[in-house]
Amino acid sequence: MEESGQDVGRAVGSTRAWEAVVAGIFLAFGLVVAWDSHRLGAAWGSDGPEAGYFPFYVGVLICISAAVNLYTALKAGAEGGKPFVHWGQLKMILTVMVPSTIYVALIANPWMGLGIYVASALFIAFFMRYLGRYGWLRIAAVSVGTMLAFFLMFEIWFKVPLPKGPLEAAFGFA
Amino acid sequence: MEELQHLFGGFAVALSWFNLMLMFAGIILGVIIGVLPGLGGANGVAILLPLTFSMAQQPGGDTSAIILLSCIYWGALFGGAITSILFNIPGEPWSVATTFDGYPLGQKGRAGAALTAAFTSSFVGAFVAVLLITFLSPIVAKFALRFGPAEFFSVYLLTFSAFVGMSRGSPFKTIAAMMLGFAMAAVGIDTVTGQLRLTFGFTDLLKGFDFLIAVIGLFGIGEILLTIEEGLEFKGAKAKLDMRVVLETWKELPRYWKTSLRAAAVGCMMGIVPGGATPASFMSYGLAKKMSPDGEKFGTGQVEGVVAPETAAHAAGTSALLPMITLGVPGSPTAAVLLGGLLIWGLQPGPLLFVEKADFVWGLIASMYLGNIVGLIVVLTCVPLFAAILRVPFSIIAPLILVICAIGAYTVHNSMFDVWLMLGFGIMGYVFKKLDYPLAPLVLALVLGDRAEDSFRQSMLLSQGDLRIFYDNGLVGGITTLALLLLFWPLISRGLDLVRGRRPRRD
Fold it and tell me: Do the Cβ atoms of A29 and B180 come within 8 Å?
């Protein structure tokens, strides 16, 4: 981690903009909740409250509070102009989120699921190489070692089955 | 002294070799969890919860399982102090106030004294809270046996109103986050009518959102993202604790008995009412600063400034379990996860637990005493070991924590969809944290949503839709009034400020 994280690069959106976006999402979500509950019936049925009775008011409350939050965000003074996140920080976050997404996709997918152990070993290896710049020997020791320990712990000791792939199958673990 | 009898029965349950071993394992795991960024009490317990499924099925196993999980919680409470004092990184939000004086003490070469003071006062705070639980919880439970649905709903209302009233941020953000939790709790099959709610035809949504996934994502992944954004470098004071320093500090500590007592009282109060450990620690630090003769020196490295927040945080963290076991209403996210554990093991938290599963409840209470003693011993002897964990480079720790979170999310229901959900919750947790949307009410609403809704519907059925049922008698009316007072507290306090002629505070 060469970057100190503070004031790296330009800002990506102001706090005000992000507040408004999030409040907007809340508003949309609240409308969806209220609409779907209304569809189910949010009134008093023959045998008491209908299924949408409680969630309808939850949806309405989300809409009200989101509207207030939206208003507060838009009228916020100088404070709202503060940057939400700097580009350098966002880059760090993406270097975690993108590999994490690929990692989860690798665990199980319709084409070639590697299983959680192999995918995790690759994931740890990637991080150690990309962020830590370790030698391959040490990377192999840490990634394979921890996954072997996890395998013993989950599959053998606690008998909690995790997703497995072709490698485990080759050793006779289905 | 019926309680003492029960308590001794509980000690008999908790004092088996197997349970003692679990206590040690739980505390050590808990401290590690508390020290690592991205893992905390709530998601640490959530991740390890699936491992207890098979343990809880054996006879008496549910007691062992809760001992393991609650000890992880105590360990995490202890662990937060280590990183605050040595590295100026609060491992947990309730340790932020500990950094104010703890870190300067460490810089002055008195890290040992700060750590000893932190651990000892944590222990004292927890001990006071456990005493309170021992003698108060049977009374509360007996009282709550008379509760009907209306009373329960008013208690839920009180819980959630407390979040609004005590939040330091915008009350509308608290309400938005909380209602989001309620809405997510409603997703899936309606338990009363069997209708599908908010699923929009997606089969993956049929079983709804599991709060354990939310906890792992929001607190685990979200926290990692925040940590990475700050570009963490671990630069810490040396951690060494020899017996001499410990004894010297212990000689100094009795001087601060007033601060300790005040802090423990603040902590217990804030813990029972869901406000939680974090505000308790700040409040107690502020009080100590105001009332101590050395008040002006606070912030430069005063032992007393470590004692106050740590005692309060532990007292609050421990007493948060009181409403959880007596009413089934958790006071903190971690207590909520423990409550989820009870439900999964097939126990019904609430007043009946004291009648039907007395050995379980008293085993748990006895284990709180023992667990904190074990905890104090473990942390006092193993500090260098735990501090060494933080010296493991982040490029190894971060992927490991992510892998552990993924495994934890998968094992809840053996479902890959949950792992994807966890990633989504992670991004949500990161954005919410940055914009000051509180996560605790969201998680609590997700846990309690169905139960709150059930009690509301049942009360409405009883009264045929008349809201006056919540003012039907003194008991329910009192709780409802208190809840409404707390709910509108932000407005009331602003009004009071205006009346007194002060400029209203901007939140």
Answer: yes
B262, part of any domain: yes
Q: Please report whether residue B255 resides in a domain.
A: yes
Task: Count Cβ atoms below 10 Å from residue B186 Cβ, excluding itself.
Answer: 25
Tokens standing for B330?
């958790």
Q: What is the mean pLDDT of chain A?
A: 85
Of B89, B86, B74, B108, the C-alpha closest to B37 is B89
pLDDT grade, residue B507 (50/70/90)? very low
- The answer to whether the CB of B138 falls within 8 A of the CB of B2 is yes
In sequence order, what are the residues at sequence separation of 6 or more whose Cβ sits closer than 8 angstroms to the Cβ of residue B386? B31, B32, B35, B79, B82, B379
Local structure of B423: helix, strand or coil? helix
DSSP code at position A161: -
Q: What is the pLDDT of residue B503?
A: 54
Touching B: A residues 115-134, CB under 8 Å:
116, 120, 123-124, 126-128, 130-132, 134
Residue of A3, A36, A150 with shortest CB distance to B198: A36
Query: Do B215 and B43 meet the contact criterion of CB atoms below 8 Å apart?
Result: yes
- pLDDT tens digits, A7-17: 556 777 788 88
Task: Give the helix ranges, DSSP H, for B88-170.
Answer: 96-105, 111-144, 149-166
Q: How far is A3 from chain B (nearest CA, A)?
A: 7
Residue in this structure with the two tokens 């379980």, named with its chain if needed: B360
State which residues form the domain around B308: 2-497
Q: Which two tokens stand for residue B258?
A: 């007033």
Which among B183, B195, B426 has the least Cβ separation from residue A62? B183
Provide ipTM, 2 decimals.
Answer: 0.90
7-46 in chain A: CB under 8 A from chain B: 15, 18-19, 22-23, 26, 29-30, 32-33, 36-37, 40, 44
Query: What are B95-108's pLDDT values in tens digits?
Result: 778 888 888 888 88
Any domain includes B174 = yes
pLDDT in tens, B202-233: 888 888 888 889 989 998 888 888 888 776 55
Closest CA to B120 of B446, B379, B423, B407: B379
Between B388 and B492, the higher pLDDT residue: B492
Residue B423 with chain A: CB contacts under 8 Å: 97, 100-101, 104
pTM attached to this predicted model? 0.85
Q: Is residue B386 situated within a structural domain?
A: yes
Domain total of chain B:
1
